[in-house]
From TrEMBL, chain A:
This is Peptide/nickel transport system permease protein. It is a multi-pass membrane protein. It comes from Bhargavaea ginsengi. One of its GO terms (biological process) is transmembrane transport. The keyword Cell membrane applies. Belongs to the binding-protein-dependent transport system permease family. PROSITE patterns: ABC_TM1.
UniProtKB/TrEMBL annotation, chain B:
It comes from the Bacteria. One of its GO terms (cellular component) is plasma membrane. This is Peptide/nickel transport system ATP-binding protein. Its main location: membrane. It is found in: Cell membrane. InterPro entries: AAA+_ATPase (IPR003593), ABC_Ni/Peptide_Import (IPR050388), ABC_transporter-like_ATP-bd (IPR003439), ABC_transporter-like_CS (IPR017871), Oligopep_ABC_C (IPR013563), P-loop_NTPase (IPR027417). Residues 6-256 form the ABC transporter domain. It comes from Bhargavaea ginsengi. Belongs to the ABC transporter superfamily. GO terms for molecular function: ATP binding; ATP hydrolysis activity. It holds the Pfam family ABC_tran. It is a peripheral membrane protein. Keywords: ATP-binding, Cell membrane, Membrane, Nucleotide-binding, Transport. PANTHER family: DIPEPTIDE TRANSPORT ATP-BINDING PROTEIN DPPD, OLIGOPEPTIDE TRANSPORT ATP-BINDING PROTEIN APPD.
Automatic annotation (TrEMBL), chain C:
Its main location: membrane. It comes from Bhargavaea ginsengi. This is Peptide/nickel transport system permease protein. Residues 98-287 form the ABC transmembrane type-1 domain. The chain crosses the membrane at residues 33-53, 100-125, 137-155, 161-180, 215-244, 264-290. Belongs to the binding-protein-dependent transport system permease family.
Length: 304, 327, 300
């Protein structure tokens, strides 16, 4: 518990820095006034808005005001939807979480058995196919795979819906699209992690005890191989976020990613900010939980 | 003593590498008798560890036994089914390894790892296995055995871990214990303790021990008989007394001369020049000739056979036949 | 003992040229060779695009819209891979699209590498405050998916080729900074660098002479593999409408057009995706081979 608190405290500077980066990017790379007013606004109108937004204050003051709004959850209103940006974002969050979790499950179901299999059958034809498949999976853009899946399952065989959200059938293609992309990377990592572990002395010890090979591999080796894999899975949340942006657009999945992409296209800055922060918090939390799981898996790390 | 427990005949092991196959054990034959302690001696790279892994049937994936017979009691281990082989491993024949630091699985408790073979081979329940595990730990001199059962390997010292390894290897009362350099990685004082432990085992039970070492001090302390290996071959076989009294092979002599003796006031320790040849680039003829003080043209031409000296004492050197080497 | 001089036979170390040895190893690695062939081929296609393309990639022709590939009914050799919804030739667009992919991929990586090297040197060589600030920056960049930064910058600056390169380069410098920093830290403590410093060599000279040569092979490997991910990223952003804008041609942009017509005209989306996959695969194969040869210590 104490450790959890400590880790949570440690994320604060990172969050602060992120807010700072976002703030600087927003302020220095563009004049918010020109984005908020129509092209033909007069200089006077601009000045009034500038004053009312506090844009004439020194930058540090502006940053503090910005932080204050953040803490209150006040990102402003979306001009496209005419509603509070944070509410809008939170409304879309469940759809994205649903997709993310389903994709992660797909990724684990694919990568764990394949990664283990290719490690124990190292250099066999099977291994060649699995590692080859993983490289192709990495080289293939996610959205293209999604489109090809639509072509195959929805257009040609009409088995699954083309897009949208609702039934479980709607979830299948997006989850496979996003899941296989992550699985490609994870399979490679599980394979190399397993290979390293399988060469360790304690595996030889386990075999010398007369344990069945499945016990040696699935228990003695995999429990160890899992430790780096969990860390890597946490890093995959970043890929996952990038993936949801694209997958949601391909399948018209009404989630946070689709919302964010639209908002960026429309320069709906309030929504961009709100979505960015929610995603940042999500990523930080998942990194944190990975760190905790890591500690549970590896007894060598002392509990504090 | 007398009855053969394990018989190895013409064992040949090769490894697949990027540059083709290399043979690291080339026609090794020996036997281990019931209750005896056999030492296999040689520098690293002589094939002694590979031999033991081959006997256990746990060679790394790129290694394979290509020739020879391994007979345990009446069973031909090479043709045994995987399942039957597993029944022997850890049960009839068990093994302890050189590196106690890495030989135990870091994510499982000592108790878990100790119970494993007991539940597998003896069919004990978890509770019974726990009790036996504690008893085994006490037998190897660990006093707070209950506590240690709940610990993880990284919480124990190297010496403690090696004791745990020995307890684990002995837990199913094996007929043969293979100890691969059991003391090499340990501090000198801990070495002595582990050796004492092994000697007690030898004296108090009928377990045969095959100890693999490069340390002739360990040999003198424990062994009944000795096999000297060089470059994947047996170069000398003798009782421990014979070997120390009248070594026949120049390599054995070299090893003995390079051993520090307490009573000698020699300024410099002798050492054999050169290193064990790389298995991919074996010299012609006698494999030791490039490093041998007596090596000549004939040694380059002829690969010598193992020649009997007297009784069970044999050595692989052509000079022997010509009596040039008799000391 | 001394009279025995015959030594253990050693491996023959015939002097070979370094480049020749590299090439020989490349021939031995089938995937590495395949990668090189693909990379060279795509580069040639990009350079000679105007000579290879039969049509103007941006020229619309409503009379010939959604013509299928030549082997299907209604297809013809004038448009070997068919046309898109505006009647533009898919093959010509793929040929021209290679230019954007390579241009963006390579320049963004060079930019990222330049930023990363400077940051890594500042952090590693000058240490202290520099190190602290830069490493916190690195942490933040690692904590947040780079696509978020990209989206914010693109939202503010608006999409264009230049923005795209800046954005892609500006968000992927972190790997280089970390690599250069750790290499610098270890080189800095070596005796010859210390003595060079002691006799008053300029920092610039030490950096150029001792530190940079040590990072070059790692740099080449990371950069090559980075080109692969950058090409995918460019395609992704263009697909989302945030990258290359019409009438410029990008494989990602073609895919977004093709997505709309997938129900009727599969070829519009299929072929550009294939082009991306093959190109990226080639770069990855080549990069993996480079890693095996130049820098076995870097792992995934």
């Amino acid at each position: 518990m104490k450790y959890l608190l400590k880790s949570l405290l440690k994320t604060i500077p990172v969050l602060l820095l992120i807010t700072m980066i976002v703030f600087v990017l927003m302020r220095l790379t563009g004049d918010p006034v020109s984005l908020m007013l129509p092209e033909n606004a007069t200089a006077e109108e601009r000045d009034t808005l500038r004053e009312s937004l506090g844009l004439n204050d020194p930058l540090p003051v502006q940053y503090l005001a910005f932080l204050g709004d953040l803490v209150k959850g006040d990102f402003g209103d979306s001009f496209r939807y005419n509603m509070d940006a944070l509410d809008l974002v939170l409304e879309r969050l469940p759809a994205t979480l649903e997709l993310a979790i389903a994709s992660m499950i797909v990724a684990v179901i694919i990568s764990v058995p394949l990664g283990i299999l290719s490690a124990i059958k190292r250099n066999s034809v099977l291994d060649l196919f699995i590692t080859g498949g993983a490289v192709v999976g990495k080289a293939m853009p996610n959205f293209w795979l999604g489109i090809m899946l639509i072509l195959f399952f929805s257009v040609t065989f009409q088995l699954l819906p083309v897009s949208g959200r609702g039934t479980l059938a709607h979830l299948v293609l997006p989850a496979i699209t996003l899941g296989t992309g992550i699985a490609a990377e994870m399979t490679r990592l599980i394979r190399s992690s397993m290979l390293e572990i399988l060469g360790q002395d304690f595996i030889r010890t386990a075999r010398s005890k007369g344990l069945r090979e499945t016990v040696v591999v699935n228990q003695h080796a995999f429990r160890n191989a899992l430790i780096p894999v969990v860390t890597i899975m946490a890093l995959q949340t970043a890929t996952l976020v990038g993936g949801t942006l694209i997958t949601e657009t391909v399948f018209a999945w009404p989630g946070l990613g689709q919302l964010l992409v639209q908002a960026v296209n429309l320069r709906d800055m309030a929504v961009v900010q709100a979505a960015t922060f929610i995603i940042a918090i999500f990523v930080i939390l998942s990194n944190l939980s990975a760190d905790l799981i890591y500690r549970l898996l590896d007894p060598r790390i002392k509990y504090e | 003593m007398g009855e053969e427990l394990l018989k190895v005949d013409g064992l040949k092991v090769r490894f697949k590498t990027d540059d083709g196959y290399i043979t690291t054990v080339n026609g090794v034959s020996f036997s281990v008798k019931k209750g005896e302690t056999l030492a296999i001696v040689g520098e690293s790279g002589s094939g002694k560890s590979v031999t033991s892994l081959a006997l256990m049937g746990i060679l790394p994936p790129n290694g394979e036994v290509v020739d020879g017979d391994v007979t345990y009691k009446d069973k031909d281990l090479r043709t045994l089914s995987k399942k039957d082989y597993r029944k022997i491993r850890g049960n009839d024949i068990s093994m302890i390894f050189q590196e106690p630091m890495t030989a135990l699985n870091p994510v499982f408790t000592i108790g878990f790892q100790l119970r494993e073979p007991l539940m597998l081979h003896e069919g004990l329940s978890k509770k019974e296995a726990q009790a036996r595990g504690v008893e085994m730990l006490r037998n190897v001199g660990i006093s707070d055995a209950e506590k240690v059962m709940g610990r993880f390997p990284h919480q124990l010292s190297g010496g403690m871990r090696q004791r745990v390894m020995i307890a684990m290897a002995l837990s199913c009362n094996p007929e043969l214990l293979i100890a691969d350099e059991p003391t090499t990685a340990l501090d000198v004082t801990i070495q002595a303790q582990i050796l004492t432990l092994l000697r007690n085992l030898k004296e108090s039970s009928n377990t045969s021990i095959m100890i693999i070492t490069h340390d002739l001090g360990v040999v003198a302390e424990l062994a009944d008989r000795v096999i000297v290996m060089y470059a994947g071959e047996v170069v000398e076989v003798a009782t421990v007394h014979e070997l120390f009294e009248s070594p026949q092979h120049p390599y054995t002599k070299g090893l003995l001369d390079s051993m520090p003796k307490i009573h000698d006031v020699v300024n410099e320790l002798y050492s054999i020049e050169g290193t064990v040849p790389n298995p991919a680039e074996m010299p012609q003829g006698c494999k030791f000739h490039p490093r041998c003080p007596f090596g000549d043209e004939e040694c380059v031409q002829t690969h010598p056979n193992l020649l009997n000296v007297k009784g069970d004492h044999a050595a692989r050197c052509i000079k022997l036949a010509k009596k040039e080497l008799v000391v | 003992m001394a009279q025995i001089t015959e030594s253990v036979p050693r491996s023959s170390n015939k002097p070979k040229s370094a480049i020749g040895a590299l090439f020989r190893r490349l021939l031995r690695s089938r995937t590495g060779m395949l990668g090189l062939v693909i990379v060279v081929l795509v580069t040639l296609i990009a350079i000679f695009a105007p000579l290879l393309a039969a049509h103007d990639p941006a020229k619309t022709d409503i009379m010939n819209r959604l013509v299928p590939p030549f082997w299907l009914d209604g297809g013809n050799m004038s448009y070997p891979l068919g046309t898109d919804n505006l009647g533009r030739d898919v093959l010509s667009r793929i040929i021209y699209g290679s230019r954007v992919s390579l241009l963006v991929g390579i320049s963004a990586v060079l930019l990222a590498g330049a930023i990363g090297i400077v940051m890594g040197l500042l952090a590693g060589y000058y240490g202290k405050a520099w190190d602290f600030i830069i490493m916190r920056l690195v942490d933040s960049f690692l904590a947040i998916p780079s696509i978020l930064f990209m989206l914010i910058i693109l939202a503010v600056m608006g999409p264009s080729l230049m923005t795209l390169i800046l954005v892609l380069g500006g968000t992927s410098w972190v790997v280089y900074a970390r690599m250069v920093r750790s290499e610098t830290l270890s080189v800095k403590e070596r005796d010859y660098v210390r003595s060079a410093k002691a006799i008053g060599a300029l920092d610039f000279r030490i950096i150029v002479k001792y530190i940079l040569p040590n990072v070059i092979s790692s740099f080449i490997v990371i950069a090559t593999l980075n080109v692969a991910s950058t090409i995918i990223m460019e395609a992704s952003l263009s697909f989302l409408g945030l990258g290359i804008q019409s009438p410029d041609v990008s494989w990602g942009l073609m895919l977004s057009d093709g997505r709309e017509y997938i129900a009727t005209s599969w070829w519009v989306a299929t072929f550009p995706g294939l082009a991306i996959t093959i190109t990226v695969l080639g770069v990855i194969f080549f990069g993996d081979w480079l890693r095996d040869v130049l820098d076995p210590k870097i792992k995934d």
